[in-house]
Amino acid sequence: MALMITDDCINCDVCEPECPNDAISMGLEIYEIDPNKCTECVGHFEEPQCQLLCPVACIPFNPAWRESEDELRAKYERLEAAKAA
């Protein structure tokens, strides 16, 4: 499943540059994660980098966006193919 950023976000700017899929961007008030781009870092890292670095632990899994490991891997492959095109 994709990740999400909660209202506890303090806009510290740590997560955005660490996302290998450019899934994190500034929203109206706090950072947001585009679930269409979030692979939980599958294909890049063993763990989601944004979760590891977040100083306030405000990046849980998004229960509304459930995906299997295979689905995340397929999304990663699609995103990489689009970058290469």
TrEMBL record:
Pfam family, one: Fer4
Record keywords: 4Fe-4S, Electron transport, Iron, Iron-sulfur, Metal-binding, Transport
GO molecular function: 4 iron, 4 sulfur cluster binding; metal ion binding
The keyword Ligase appears for this protein: no
GO CC, alphabetical: cytoplasm
Signal peptide feature range: none
Domain 4Fe-4S ferredoxin-type: 1-29
Domain of life: Bacteria
Family matches, as InterPro entries: 4Fe4S_Fe-S-bd, 4Fe4S_Fe_S_CS, PSI_iron-sulfur_center, YfhL-like
Cofactor: [4Fe-4S] cluster
Protein name in the entry: Ferredoxin
